[in-house]
Amino acid sequence: MFGLTLEKLIIIGLIAAVVVGPSRLPHYAHSLGSLVRAFRDFLQSVKTQTESELGTPLEIDKWTTHLQHYDPRQITKAALSTDASVPTSSDHARHPER
What we know:
With about 100 residues, this protein is mainly alpha-helical. It has one domain (about 5-80). It has 5 helices and no strands. It has helices at about 5-20, 25-55, 60-70, 70-80, 90-95. The protein is flat, with a radius of gyration of 26 Å. The model has no long low-confidence stretch (mean pLDDT about 80).
């Protein structure tokens, strides 16, 4: 999540609480909650509208599973685990490419 850990989020929250002040903090927290809720509702409506226009349900879980196949760590691990023969320098000396 953008390199933000729980500790960093807590520090950001504490700094925001000090800057905003205790009197206005509940109002801003409520506004933030409303904003997050509205964004989630917007995403859900876009998904519903897209599914109705396409006539087929979006299979987001399949997309994420498919994208995991392109994880560089898994590709490297699979490449290193195969027993591919690598030509040695003596093989190259015997059969030079022209």
